[in-house]
Write a structure and sequence with these properties.
124 residues; mainly alpha; 2 domains; 4 helices; elongated
Length: 124
């Protein structure tokens, strides 16, 4: 009636953002709860390295839940995507280096066997 179109639009945008923030906080809260359950489950298994694996799993789930919450809130979507891409790339490079250094002897034997087979095949 009073033609407060700008105020109405601003209030609608605020309500949408507030809803996204509330859902993001719920997602983060569930992530914290799930991380605690997973950590307690790992500790209960009495594995040899449970005291190391439980906090690693818990922190990993916290990071994932935090990223999901930020994405749900609509904050830093590009940063979250880039961070996960960089983390995945770092893990891939670390695995490649570890396999390259650790598998050097195995690769050497594999290549030597291949060369010997080729020599044997050429004889016949």
């Amino acid at each position: 009636m009073l033609r407060f179109d700008a105020v109405t639009d601003l209030m609608a945008q605020f309500l949408v953002f507030a809803g996204q923030v509330i859902v993001g906080l719920i997602v983060f809260g569930l992530g914290i709860y799930i991380a605690k359950v997973v950590a307690n489950t790992i500790r209960a298994t009495d594995m040899g390295q449970a005291h190391i694996l439980a906090p690693v799993a818990q922190i990993s789930i916290w990071v994932l839940a935090g990223a999901m919450a930020l994405r749900q809130m609509g904050l830093a979507t590009d940063i979250v995507n880039m961070a996960f891409a960089l983390a995945f790339g770092a893990v891939a490079v670390a695995a490649a280096i570890a396999f390259g250094i650790g598998g050097r002897d195995a690769a050497k034997h594999l290549v030597e066997d291949l060369v010997e087979r080729r020599k044997y095949e050429r004889q016949f």
